[in-house]
Amino acid sequence: MFSKTALILLAFISVAYSQTDDEESFLFVTKQTVNRFIVQGKELTIKYGLYNSGPTTVFNVNLNDVHSYPSKYYELLVGTLNPKWERINAGTNLTHVVVLKPKESGISNSSHAIVTYQKSEKNTEVQRTYSSEIGDVYIMTGREYDRRFSSHVIDWILFTAMASPCIVFPFFLWFNSKRKYELLASKDKTTKKAQ
Amino acid sequence: MFRLLSMLSTILAFLTLIILTAGQNCESPQFKVTTYSTQDARLTTESAAQLEFTVKCKNGKQPSNLYADINGQIIPCAQSVSSPGKYYISGSAATPKQLARGRISVKLYDDDSYSALRKARADDAVKAVKPFGEVELICSGASYGPWLPSEFFAVIVFGAIWWIAYRERSKILV
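Above: the input entities. Below: the C-alpha cells describing the complete assembly.
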C-alpha cells in the first residue's frame, strides 16, 4: 500500500514537472489519405493535419513532402507539396489538402513528410518534426476499379449485341409463320363467308 | 522656437509613419481563384475542398499573411514555397452534405484586419471589421455514381422481351 501511494505520488510529480518544464509548443503533423481505394489514373487525396499543442505560437512552418511523391510516378493536380505558414497560433488545427494522380499501379510506399518550424520569432533555431506516414499502399489498375464500380453500360450494350441473334432469329421464324397462318386464316374466313 | 521644431518633427514623424504603413497595405486587391472539390464520393471517405488563389494589388505589394474565415474559425492561409504569390485554403468535411453543390463564401483578412478582429470582443464589433477580401468556393458536389444502375435497364429490357414471348407462347399452346 505504501508503494502504491508512492507510485501515484511519483506519477503526479513527473506529470507536473513535465508540464511546467517547457513553455514551448510542439507541432503534431498527421498525414493520411481520404481515399477508400487508390486507383491508377484517378485522384488520390492526401490530407495533412497540423495541430499546435501547447501555449505559444510557432513561426515559419514549412512542410516538405516532395520526396514522397516524385513527379515520375505521381502527377500533382491540386495543391502544393511544399506549403508554408508564417505562424500557427496555439491550439489551432490546420488542414492542407493535396490531390495527386498515380501514374503506375502496384505497391507503393510513401514516407513521412518533413516539417520544420521555429518556436519563437527571434530564435532562428529550427525544430524538425516528421508527420505520420501512410505506409505501403496498393494502387489498383483502372481496370480493376472499373470492374467493380463503373456503370457497365458498354458491357451491357455488347451483351445485347451478342445475345440478339439468339432472340431475333426465333422471333423472325415465329413472326413469319404467324403472318402466314393469319393470312391463311383470313383467306379461309373470306372463302367460308363466300360459300 | 525649439518647441515649434520638436512639434514639427513629431508631426513629420507621424506623417511618415502613416505614409509607410499606407504603402505597405494592399489596396483594392483582385483575386484569381481556382477551386477544387471532391468529385467521386465512392472513391473517398471524406470530401475535401481547396481554394488556390493569387492576389494582385494596385500598388504591386503582396500581403505577407492572409487568414481565412472558415465556419467561424480563422485559420492562416498556406503559401507556396516554390511559387510565391499563391495562397491555399484547404478543408475537409466528414459528411458530403457540408460540401454540397453550391457556392461557399470565404472572407479573407490580412494582418491589420486580423489584429482588429482579434481585438473585437462583441459580436457587433466582430461583424464591423472590414475583411481584406472575399473569395468563393464553388463546389460541384460529389457524385455517387449514376442514379439507376445499368443493370436495372438491362433487367427491364430483357424482362419485357421475355414477357412478350411468354404471352405469345401461351396463346399458341392453349
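Note for the figure: Chain A has two domains: 24-148, 151-188.
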